[in-house]
Amino acid sequence: MPAPQTPAKTGNNPLLVLAKISAILDAFSLTRPVLTLAGIREVTGMPTSTVQRLVTNLTAQGFLDREDDAYRIGLKMAYWAAPATRGKEILDVLNPLLKDLRDATGETACFFKAEQRYRVCVGIAETRHALRREMHLGKIMPLHAGSAGRVLLAWDAELLDRVLKEPLESITESTITSSEDLQAVVKQTRTDGFAITTDERETGASGLSAPVFDSSAGLVGAVTISGPTLRMPREVCEGWVETLLQTAERMTRIIGGRFPGEAAS
Predict the structure, then answer these.
(1) How far apart, in Å, are the Cα atoms of 52 and each of 38, 41, 47, 77, 94?
(2) Per-residue pLDDT averaged across 56-76, rounded?
(3) What are the angstrom distances between the C-alpha of 244 and each of 67, 105, 106, 263?
(4) DSSP notation for 3-19
(5) Is 157 exposed, middle or buried (0-12, 13-18, 19+ CB in 10 A)?
(6) pLDDT at 113
(7) Which residue in 16, 55, 65, 74 has the most C-beta neighbors within 10 A?
(8) Which of 100, 146, 105 is nearest to 236 (CA)?
(9) Beta strands per DSSP E along the chain
(10) What torsion do the CA atoms of 139, 142, 148, 151 make, to the nearest 10 degrees?
(11) What is the C-alpha to C-alpha distance for residues 49 and 125, in angstroms, rounded to an integer?
(12) Can you tell me the distance from the alpha carbon of 262 to that of 206, in angstroms, rounded to the nearest whole number?
């Protein structure tokens, strides 16, 4: 009887395939939402045949959508992205404090986290005023404009370095577009422990933000009060600083966090 043959190796290592799929999806970003096959190949460094095969499969499964001769992240991914802001223990804990902050000031209270070179709204308690700034869970904004961005950059030197390596887009007439100016206001934010901005990301809008830290004194995110400047002129924002800082401290304590320079318990 002939000896049983050893099955041939196919080379289709599932982990390797997942890594290649991840690289393709990571090739897309807010600054390059649409890519051709050649563009994907250039970003990933994969062979043309591999890119073509995987992109075809990803499109068939709805993970990518085709636009003429190019591709973008598929709408199916939105069904997975939406639950990402729900069910997180830390957000479940912080959301009641956002509502308390909203009730104390009457304005929208948000919680922002940094994602790559952007900030994302991951928690929100909306104002009950009819006139309000447009804000929603998952909203993505640049880090160099607005009070929350200043806070996120002030306690993350590596993130600040990455942001400063790229041109700073002008969004309004008040947006900071100078690297030196951004460094200066970020340094001041770290000194003050909070940031107040007006008109930087949206004309006629104001915001004030403070940092929240984890158990290793690492930055978790920024808690923010935002609204129209009509109701939030500079003097009103300054009057809310103590309330904001108290909320940031409560958030830090409730998740077992501590502030930089504070001894671990």
Answers:
(1) 9, 9, 9, 20, 44
(2) 89
(3) 45, 9, 13, 23
(4) PPPPPPP----HHHHHH
(5) exposed
(6) 94
(7) 55
(8) 105
(9) 35-36, 64-67, 70-73, 108-115, 118-125, 140-142, 195-198, 205-213, 219-228
(10) 140
(11) 48
(12) 31
Average pLDDT of the chain is 87
| SS3 state of residue 120 | strand
Distance CA 212, CA 253 (A): 9
Q: Is 65 helix (H, G, I), strand (E, B) or coil?
A: strand
Q: To the nearest 10°, the Cα dihedral for 44, 49, 54, 55?
A: 80
Residue where the block lists tokens 């804000």: 135
Cα 50 from Cα 61, distance rounded (Å):
17
pTM: 0.67
CA distance 41 to 32: 14
Residue 92 has pLDDT above 60, yes or no: yes
Give strand pairing partners of 125.
Answer: 109
Percentage of residues of the chain with pLDDT beyond 70 = 89
Task: Find the angle CA(149)-CA(152)-CA(154) to the nearest 5 degrees.
Answer: 105
Determine the pLDDT at residue 110.
96
